Amino acid sequence: MTRVIIIDDHPIVREGLVAALDGKNGIEIVGAFGAAEEAIAALSRVKPEVAVLDLELPRMSGIDAIARLRESAAVVILTAYESEEDIERALDAGAKGYLLKGAPLDDIERAIAAAARGESYVDARVAGKMISRRGSERLTAREREVLQLIADGRSNKEIGTRLRIAERTAKFHVTAILAKLGADNRAQAVAIAKERRLI
User: Which of 66, 85, 167, 168 is the most exposed, having the fewest neighbouring CB atoms within 10 Å of its CB?
Assistant: First the structure.
């Protein structure tokens, strides 16, 4: 069983998640908390493997909580906040998963399972926020930085290190660049970028 804690300041959401997840598909809910401080204080007692939390919490924000929680458990964000900035901040802080409230229960279960394995999981709506419609927008300043590093032959991990962002955030930027340029792979993206004098 994967030991999971829920952190959400809305009792209905919290209790609903416990009722929906506990005992399902290898998930055991070992704690449910209305604030991050309560969860952090209980970590040594309940020993969770995965923490599912909202970004908007009283007193300590979800972003600040991620850094404290991820030392003991993989963190999956389940929130209503869907701006690119919120997503990037959470992933950079160390969250393994990011889902929007209203996500199907199956997606939440998959995110928990992935996080428990040390893998990342981002639902389709969140990915859509990170990846603009194909060719519909110009590259952002950060995407141009990433593009130059792609052209230099850097891996996602190396890009992350160079730009001081999480490797998975670098991966999202690379995917967005490919989509915007209409490229199928990195080499094609670099060729298109050179043709358009983007690098």
Answer: 85
Give CA–CA dist 194/89, Å, rounded.
Answer: 31
pTM for the model: 0.70
* Per-residue model confidence (pLDDT) at position 136: 42
Q: Please name every residue paired with 51 in a beta bridge, in sequence order, or none if there are none.
A: 5, 75
The secondary structure element, H or E, covering residue 95 is none
pLDDT digits 0-9 by tens, 12-27: 999 999 999 999 999 9
Query: Would you say 177 and 164 are in contact if contact means Cβ atoms under 8 Å apart?
Result: no
Whole-Å CA distances, 82 to 11, 89, 96, 98: 21, 11, 16, 9
Lowest mean pLDDT across 43-52, 89-98, 108-117? 89-98
User: In this structure, are residues 121 and 97 in contact, taking their beta carbons and an 8 Å threshold?
Assistant: yes
Query: What are the DSSP calls for 6-75, one per residue?
Result: EE-S-HHHHHHHHHHHTTSTTEEEEEEESSHHHHHHHHHHH--SEEEE-S--SSS-HHHHHHHHTTTSEE
Domains of the chain and any CATH numbers: 2-129 (3.40.50.2300), 131-195 (1.10.10.10)
Angstrom CA distances, 39 to 4, 10, 72, 98, stand at 11, 15, 11, 19
Model confidence pLDDT, tens digit, residues 123-163: 877 776 665 444 445 788 889 999 999 999 999 999 999 99
